[in-house]
Amino acid sequence: MSLIGKVAVITGGGGVIGGAVARTLVNKGAKVVVGDIQEKRAQNVAEELNENAKSIVATSLQTDVTKYKDNIALFRHAETTFGGVDVDE
Predict the structure, then answer these.
(1) What is one Pfam family matched by this protein (predicted)?
(2) N or C: which end of the chain has fewer CB atoms below 10 A?
């Protein structure tokens, strides 16, 4: 399945499973927004994805999914950076 041109939001994206999901989606052509409560972990995943792709395919944002305003900020970040969201995990 090709995800070329799609944008995904991954919560918990700085963790082992979330990072693996982000890598898989990027490998299938998607751009991803990596959200995680631990900002540095989210940044590390996004940086790795961008370095491997040699282009901007990922961005990150510190996100506490238990806070409504953080969830809104995560999706706004996706809209601002990549123009919207097609997939949310």
Answers:
(1) adh_short
(2) N
